[in-house]
Design a protein that fits this description.
The complex is a heterodimer of chains A (about 270) and B (about 290).
Chain A (H helix, E strand, L loop, with lengths): L1 H29 L2 H4 L3 E2 L4 E2 L2 H32 L2 H16 L2 H16 L9 H25 L3 H9 L4 H12 L1 H17 L2 H6 L17 H8 L5 H29 L5
Antiparallel strand pairs in A: 1-2
Chain B lengths: L11 H34 L4 H5 L2 E2 L4 E2 L2 H30 L6 H16 L2 H15 L6 H25 L3 H9 L4 H30 L2 H4 L19 H11 L4 H36 L1
Antiparallel strand pairs in B: 1-2
The chains are: A mainly alpha (about 270), B mainly alpha (about 290).
Chain lengths: ~270, ~290
């Protein structure tokens, strides 16, 4: 009882402290400055965050665009096409992949992927590299939750469909996937909150220049990356602005995970 | 469902196409995973030897080993577990057992844990920096880092422990109640022992999360490479060491790969331990049923 209260209070303490630290930025320069200042030069009190917000949006969406089709396809593989042993082994592989530390993904990105992507006029540390690394990191989330959702589709439904003469692809694509859509969507929203919040791997491959992501080969800096790079030397006003952006990230994550729960419907208990 | 013969002929060609697509997707994922782990191991293993594991880093980590980093990591983990395990167990008991009469409260607890699980780890880092380092005056220290990680791993530990407690067969619980055991005695003598494998899996998953974490530690535990003498010292975790070597130390990437190798081996052992524990729980449940 007490323990449950403390665990719950943890969330509110986190929110409270973020608000407390962000308060100066939210009141005196004001939120609108994040949109209207001419640039991000925190040392001379210019706090335009839109390029970094756009970079966060671009990396997150890009990663989802790559990871969702592959993840869902691999879930169809596990449920409908894989021999039992291969399906089990593949699921184990996904669990291992989900456990790999983000710095290891980042290091691989930096040492292997970035040199591969380097080309004329850019070093390979850019938006596309960040998208690729992020996509790999969220793949297990998408694939495992889609596989779980497909597994939860009642066998009787699939057998009935097959008895009506539907072929295996029709059963998979027209019966099973639609029946599992809520679970799959919830998994995608969880993956979204993961991609939104990932920091170290992105910092290692994104190039970290504050600018609008108007091309795939442009170095970008995400909101999370900015926190990791700047909190260490931030003065009071700057620190407060950074906490304000942390608060916004937290809100975004809270919204996406709450949506995931709503979409998923009541968990069976 | 895996026998194609159960389905009618006209779909056969489409079946082959979709089959090829999904095999390709799964094969691609497996190949990339092998690429990432294989490449890191190949770069790292040649650098790893006894000296690497037993000496302190010198020359910003380019030379020497990682023993002080390993010790810091273990100390951070110890702080995390000391703080998180009792809280996680208590909350899990509440959610699994007591909450039937408190369903609204349980819903709030569940929601807050879901949100807590989704909070970006760098945000935990900022929070930990503000609360533990500044307000509580702990500074950049192993204690600050460990406590920050404790907040972070709570949700996963609670969820697994709750599921473990719930999967204890209801008859056990009812028989114990019928024999007149009090709730605490029932928890202690019946439910906890039966749920141990599942709860251990939660513990192990939490350790895996904590080991893998970087962003929450750079502004709480700091990055001193000295051998820590107490939990009030700043200490660099393995993952932070990888990041620092790769990003901020020129020519540090060989040592970064070596450290990443050690980190990855630890995490992989822990992940497989967790899944084997969860697997055992399933067998246990079947034999009970």
């Amino acid at each position: 009882m007490t323990a449950a209260a403390i665990s719950t209070v943890t969330l509110f303490v986190v929110v409270l402290f973020l608000i407390r630290e962000a308060f100066p930025a939210l009141t005196s320069p004001g939120l609108h400055r994040f949109l209207t200042d001419e640039s991000w030069h925190p040392l001379s009190n210019r706090f335009r965050m839109t390029p970094m917000a756009a970079a966060t949006a671009a990396t997150t969406l890009g990663a989802l665009v790559l990871a969702v089709p592959v993840g869902v396809a691999s879930a169809v593989f596990v449920r409908f096409y894989a021999p039992a042993a291969a399906g089990r082994a593949f699921r184990g592989l996904l669990e291992l992949m989900a456990g790999i530390p983000s710095v290891v993904f980042g290091l691989w990105g930096l040492l292997v992927l970035v040199p591969l992507l380097a080309g004329h006029g850019h070093s390979g540390q850019h938006l596309l590299a960040a998208i690729c690394v992020l996509a790999l990191m969220i793949l297990p989330v998408v694939a495992l939750s889609a596989a779980a959702a497909l597994n939860a589709v009642p066998e009787s439904l699939l057998v009935a469909a097959a008895a009506l003469g539907l072929s295996r692809p029709s059963v998979a694509l027209r019966i099973a996937l639609p029946a599992a859509r809520r679970g799959i969507a919830a998994g995608i929203l969880l993956a979204l909150s993961r991609a939104l919040g990932e920091t170290m791997a992105v910092v290692m491959v994104a190039g970290n220049v504050v600018q609008f992501p108007d091309s795939l080969t442009r170095p970008v800096r995400t909101l999370t990356g900015n926190l990791a790079l700047e909190l260490g030397y931030a003065g009071p006003a700057h620190r407060s602005v950074l906490f304000a952006s942390a608060l916004m990230l937290m809100l975004a994550a809270a919204v996406s995970v709450s949506l995931a729960r709503v979409v998923e419907g009541r968990p069976d208990e | 469902m895996s026998e194609g013969g159960a389905f009618s002929r006209p779909g056969a060609r489409f079946d082959r196409i979709l089959g090829a697509v999904v095999w390709l997707a799964a094969g691609g994922i497996a190949a990339v995973l092998i690429w990432i782990t294989g490449d890191t191991l190949q770069r790292g293993l040649s650098e790893v030897d006894i000296a690497f594991l037993t000496t302190e880093p010198t020359d910003a980590g380019r030379r020497g080993g990682i023993v002080s980093v390993v010790v810091s990591t273990l100390m951070i983990l110890a702080v995390t577990l000391t703080a998180a395990v009792p809280l996680a167990l208590g909350t899990a008991v509440f959610l699994a057992d007591v909450s039937a009469r408190w369903s609204a409260a349980a819903a709030v607890v569940r929601w807050s844990l879901d949100v807590l699980a989704a909070v970006p780890s760098i945000v935990f880092g900022l929070f930990g920096n503000a609360l533990f380092c500044v307000v509580l005056g702990l500074g950049y220290s192993i204690l600050s880092g460990g406590l920050t990680l404790a907040c972070m791993v709570l949700p996963v530990m609670i969820r697994t422990a709750e599921q473990a407690l719930r999967s204890v067969p209801a008859e056990l619980r009812m028989n114990a109640a019928a024999l007149g055991l009090r709730r605490t005695a029932r928890l202690w003598h019946i439910e906890f022992p039966a749920a141990v494998p599942g709860m251990a899996a939660g513990l192990v998953l939490g350790i895996g999360r904590a080991l893998a974490e970087t962003a929450a530690l750079i502004f709480t535990a700091g990055y001193a490479t000295r051998m820590p003498t107490s939990v009030m010292d700043s200490g660099r975790a393995l993952s932070v060491h990888v990041y620092e070597l790769a990003m901020n130390v020129p020519m540090g990437d060989r040592r970064a790969a070596a450290t990443a190798t050690i980190l990855m081996i630890l995490v992989l052992c822990i992940t497989s331990a967790a899944s084997s524990l969860l697997h055992r729980r399933r067998i246990f449940r079947r034999s009970e049923a």
